[in-house]
Every structure is written in structure tokens, then in C-alpha cells.
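new request in #modeling-help
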Amino acid sequence: MKLTAEEQDMLQGAYGRAVQKAMQILVALGTIYEAEAMVAVSSVQVAGVSYDNLGEAGLEFLEEMAGGGGKVRVLTTLNPAGMDIENWQAMGIDPVFAAQQQRVIDAFTRMGIIPTCSCTPYLFGNTPLFGEHIAWSESSAVCYANSVLGARSNREGGPSALAAAITGRTPCYGFHLEQKRYPTITFDIKVPISGTYAFGVLGKVVGDWMESCSPKPVPYLMGVSSASLEELKSLSASIATYGGAALFHIPGVTPEASCFSPPEEKIVITRDDLARAAESLNDVGEEQVDFISLGCPHLSLREVARIAELLAGRRVRKTFWITTSRPVKRIADSMGYTRVIEEAGAIFAVDTCCVVAPIKGRFRALATDSAKACFYATAKNGFKTRLLPFDRVVEEALL
Amino acid sequence: MKLRGRTIFPGCVKGEALVTLQGISFFGGVDPATGEIVEKGHELEGKSVAGKVLVFPSGKGSTVGSYTLYRLKKNGMAPLAVINAECETITAVGCIIAEIPCIDRIPINRLQTGCSVVVDARHGEVEVIDATRE
């Protein structure tokens, strides 16, 4: 790899231990993926925040990086933590866990990272522009930034995103390169798709198809005539979870699609394919749903407003988590949505979500509109799942 | 016999090889307290990576696995060195933060469990000392 004089100095330790370690990580990744040089990044999103996933080792590493003088050089935001930072007691979080989680947040904050604790940084100010080079972890946000915003990011892990934040660089390979962003396979969707639920199911069908492919194809989705921010957020999360996708194109919807013609290799997606995928995420059977969660990825303001509309004057009868970012919650507070939702008995779990919170053993069956949440509910927590359209998830809470 | 590969993280060690032709998932697949491989059905299940030159084709699973290598090192249960056919992000980042010598692009089918090897990760070389085990 060709390094600039400044990058060489970073690698030799002239900027301290943390910067040196960060540059070692980036050079090794650049070597593995045969990058010719580094590229400057303007924005970073760091994942690996929940103490439930990091454990003591992850925490030690972060404290070592903070102690070694690591300071971010670019706008850097943080993924969800394992708890609501301001209101963890109400979530039933163990105080020992809470203390360790706070140490994780403190280490990140010492390095200059903004503890947004959200998987939707693009909704409140960490919003890269078309063509901008960024280094994001959080697979759903990477997929959204590449596909919907037209920014350029590989799928980073927690440490490599942190390394990019501390050096302001990332190795220039993969989705940073024009020629790696071409679509390589067409999916022809023969059914109208609408709502976060249906877009999540579509993401699972395409993702399952991609899962075993090496290298990963870039899908070109034909037959989707329009999509909202919320629908694209859901599709991004699902296609990244099930297929490891970092980029997709939808003609007429995403910004780069018009640069390309549809790839010749074509897979047809039928109503049956979608029904089978939806069915596979509904294994509750006779079991009672005892946990409801909306907000994977974190809810937009429009979604919180809709929940308030549906819950006004009603009473929920199951544990119902509303997971969103702190900025959206603050607006919901001033709009009166929070009061309506809390009066109905639902709980705001801000800064966290049902994927990263330590809830194994607390529930048996989850109802959600998120195909991604279903995957982790099963794999990480052993819950049964019921995947439903957004409004029907709210109804399920009232039963 | 000398094999030549690519440096991922430098360092020079001598030790006994523990070889598998199956991928390793460090997160959930290796116990960070004991170094034991705990992945159900893995051909090295029950074996410990501690103090061994760990040879496997490539890492797999969650990116949090990088932290497992770091934790193994802190607990004194890390492998002495790692040799891969094709290194990927999880193992590379784990070896760097834990400072474990690591080489890839080695024809790992020429190494066997129990053979004695010198890993010169700085120069990307592996030397098999105990040729009787080849």
C-alpha cells in the first residue's frame, strides 16, 4: 500500500499509541483487500457499543484506546447501547450491567465520539452526501448510506470504524471504488411491495439468495415503483442481515440506479417467494406473544407519530418497547406523542433496541414489523417471532 | 520446509501447530477464559488454542470475534501465532489489537497438528522444524 508521509508517521507511532494501533488495523485491512492507498473519510458510525456484545474484553480495548490518546478527526456517531442511558431502571436492566455499559459510553465519549446511541444516524445530522467517502459499521446504516444516499462505505466492524474515526482514513477498496458499485444481478419483483413489513420480507428473499454467494453480488431491484424513507430503512436492514448486502439499486428510487442498465442474470421474485419468507418468520404457533417491539432500525418521527395516533386513549396489555433515537424522542416529547404513548402503557426504550439489549430469557415470543429483529430474536435470544405489518403490531399489543 | 505468505501482524515465535481445515468463529466458538474451542461439531471441539500456533483457513461469524482474541491474550490463553489460508477482517483486527503474530496465504494443508514450526511473521515465513511429522 502507498501511504502518505502523515500516514507513515501515524503507523510509526508519532501520533501516539491509539493512532498507531488504528493505522495498523487499517493497513492490515488494506493489505488483505489489496487497496492501493487510503482515502480520507468525512463521517464515521461506530458499532459494537452494547456491553452485552462487547464484554469485558471489548470494554478494556476501548479504554486502552481512549487512554492511549485516541481522538476522532471526523464527525463520529455511535450505535445503540444495551440500555436506555437515562432510563435503564424502567427497562429492568441489572445495575452491574448498567455500570459497565456506562464505562463503554464514557470511553467512546473521551475519544470525542458523540454518544447518539442510534442505528439511524442519517436521520439527525450524520447524513453523508452523494459520493462522500465514509467508514460506517452497523450493517443497516451502511446499506442505507450506500444505496439511498449514494455515499461510499464498506461494511466496517466496530474496531475498523473506530480506527477510521481516529485517523480520518480508510483503505480505498470495495464500495469506495466506482467499478465495485455496479449492479451484478437483477431481481424482478412481480408483486407490488408496500409498507415496512413487506420491504423487510423482500429484503429477506433477496438476502437469502445472496447469502451463499462469494463475492457478494450487488442487487438491482426491478418492479419497485416507489418507496418511503421508512420502507428503505426496513429493506436496508433486512437485506444486510440476511444477505450481507452493503449496496442495492432500485431504478426510479435510489440515486445511482439510472447510471446502470439492468444486469442480464435475472431472478424472478413471486408472491409465493414472499409468502414463504414471511411464513418462516412466523413460528409463534399456539404460543402467546409476550413482547412487542417497534423500532428496528430506530423509528423515524413519522413512525412515532403513527404509534401515538393508534394508541390514543387505548391501553396496551403486553410489554411494548418503542425504540428510537434520543433526538426523535425529544421531538416526540414536545409534540405530545410521548405522553400519549406512555399513557397507553408502552415504554420508550431510547438509545437501545430489542437486538442489543440483554433480554435473553425475559420473553418468549416477539411481535414486530422488522425482519431483522426476527433474525436476532431467534439467533441471540431464542424467542419465537411473529412478523406483522406496522399497524397490526400495535393492535397485537392491545389484545 | 519453508512456506512463504503475507504478513498481517509481525512477530517471531516457535511452537506446536494446531491445525484445522474448518473455519473458526471466535465469538461464541472459543471460550475466552480457557482458550477451548467450544463450537458444537467443530473438528477441534474441546481442544485449547492457548500457546499453540493456530492454523485454520479463515475466520467466520460476528465481528465482535476480534475482541475474543484480545480477551484470550489478556487471560494468557491466546494462540502464540495465527496462520491462515486467507485472512479476513475479524481475525486480522483481533490479531492486531491483541498483538498476536499473524500470516496468511500459506498452503495450510502442508501443516499438521503436532508439528513444530517457527513463525517469522515479520518476513511472512513459516518454517517446519519437525519434518518427521510431515
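bot summary: Chain A has a mean pLDDT of 96.
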